[in-house]
Amino acid sequence: MKYTLDKKSIRQHMVPEWFHDAKFGIFIHWGLYSVPAFASIGLKYPESMNEVGPDDYLKRNPYAEWYLNTLRIPDSPTQKYQKETYGENSSYDGFVPMFNEAIEKWDPEQMADLFKNAGAKYVVLVTKHHDGFLLWPSKYPNPNKKNYMANRDIAGELTDAVKNKGMKMAFYYSGSLDWSFNPNPIKDAASFLTNGISTPEYIEYANSHWYELIDRYGPLILWNDIGYPPNTNVYEIFAYFLNKIPEGVINDRWVQTYEDGKRITPHSDYKTPEYITYKTIKKKKWETTRGIGNSFGYNKFEKEEDYMTPEELIRMFVDVVSKNGNLLLNVGPMADGTIPEIQKKCLLELGKWLEVNGEAIYGTRPWEYPEGKTIDNIEVRYTQKKETLYAFLLDKPKGDRITIQSFFIEKNSKIQLLGLGKSLDWNQEGENLTILIPENMIDAPAYAFKITPKT
Ligand code: GLC
């Protein structure tokens, strides 16, 4: 099908099966902000925003990739950190040579191997964050700053490595915000609304970047962030993309805000909640995104207690999948591209768990309802695939049996625990289903019971 430049045409685009099947992607926030790798500790998105209010939140922003913005806020901890660490007259631009020197060591194969071993099916690289620094050698350089791009083709080298290992590659691009075009910080609710750039020069620049990224690297997702400048037809980009890459996917952060406050929400294939999960199955495909800790860019001051444990991560992932979501889990590499040990550990634990339980995750769809409980209050989640139903137990059973409340299965059903294989004894007692637990059940954050045929 050929898409035309209007909403009606693009709206016919369906979320491709690969995106439904994939469930797990890796997000990479890596750039100049990875050099200082600093953000204040203590606040969390989104809850702290309401608790302390936007002004205080922005001054102590927990997102390290917002370093440049926080640096511009008078008397922020970031200002103090910058002066103490890099000197009174230092600037954010001073990180360019440091970053370029650090990335000489980077090994894209090694990075892609880690993502593969974590069980990821796609990778979303931040090609330009709000600071405006480019991670690919663009034909459209920054008009305000010289050499404001990485001196390696990070986007290209990573695309090759990721594709070679059988994963899909996608790009994030900060559409509306570009702080290399705007010296003013976002310091309160009002400046958040007016910080985006909408000059014809910038529109041309951003559009050219999207076309260039599509033409040169063939990304599978256009992952735009914080809106797109008004007075430009985003459907031109969408149609161009989908006609070239029919398996492509478009996220939901392309809202265009006009000076009079009018907002236009273009078509999106899926939603991208941030640090948020849901209680129910969402009809529209969604992908939750978050750092393993409280930041996307690496914050070297985050401690173990600021990160999710692998157990929490795995349980959250199962929960997301049961409700029609994908997980876009972020890594924040150090400036030289090394993934910090604590993040690596989480990824590898997840990968190990997926080796056993991936069958109940990849390629599944939500079941009739997502959640249940055992009579002793262990959380249960469901997924399904063809004739199979999967019931996940989100904790280790305390005794030799579990009883799931309000859960019926067919008389001739077979129940197996993934990883063990053999059929388990079970019986239906009224509304509840009891499964006898094998003795040699290993310790795991979540267990998947495979039930065939599906009820
Ligand atoms: C937000 C933040 C940002 C992060 C992103 C990831 O919009 O501004 O720093 O890149 O979302 O979802």
Task: Walk me through this protein's architecture.
This protein folds into two domains: 7-360, Glycosidases (TIM Barrel), CATH 3.20.20.80; 365-452, Sandwich (Immunoglobulin-like). Helices cover 29% and strands 18% of the residues. It is built from 14 helices and 17 strands. Helix 8 (108-118) packs across helix 9 (154-164) and helix 8 (108-118) crosses helix 14. The protein is globular and about 70 Å long. The mean pLDDT is 96. Alpha-D-glucopyranose binds next to loops.
Please give the structural blueprint.
Blueprint: H1 7-11, H2 17-22, E1 24-28, H3 47-52, H4 54-59, H5 67-71, H6 77-86, H7 95-102, H8 108-118, E2 122-128, H9 154-164, E3 168-174, H10 189-194, H11 200-217, E4 221-225, H12 234-244, E5 249-250, E6 256-257, E7 263-264, E8 286-291, H13 310-322, E9 325-331, H14 341-357, E10 371-373, E11 379-385, E12 388-393, E13 401-404, E14 414-417, E15 426-429, E16 432-436, E17 447-452
Parallel strand pairs: 1-2, 1-9, 2-3, 3-4, 4-5, 8-9
Antiparallel strand pairs: 6-7, 10-11, 11-12, 12-17, 13-16, 14-17, 15-16
Helix pairs in contact: 8-9, 8-14
The chain binds alpha-D-glucopyranose.
**Residue windows where pLDDT falls under 50 for at least 5 positions:** none
Structure ligands = alpha-D-glucopyranose
Residue fraction in strands: 15-25%
Mean pLDDT comes to: 96
Q: What class, by secondary structure content?
A: alpha/beta
Overall 3D shape: globular
Largest sheet: 7 strands, parallel
Percent in helix: 25-40%
Strand order of the largest sheet: 5-4-3-2-1-9-8
Number of strands: 17
Distance between the termini: 38 Å
**How large, in whole angstroms, is the Cα Rg?**
23 Å
- Remind me, CATH topology of the largest domain? TIM Barrel
Number of helices: 14
Name of the CATH homologous superfamily of the largest domain: Glycosidases
Examine the secondary-structure arrangement and name the CATH architecture of the largest domain: Alpha-Beta Barrel
- Count of spatially separate domains: 2
What is the level 1 CATH name of the largest domain?
Alpha Beta
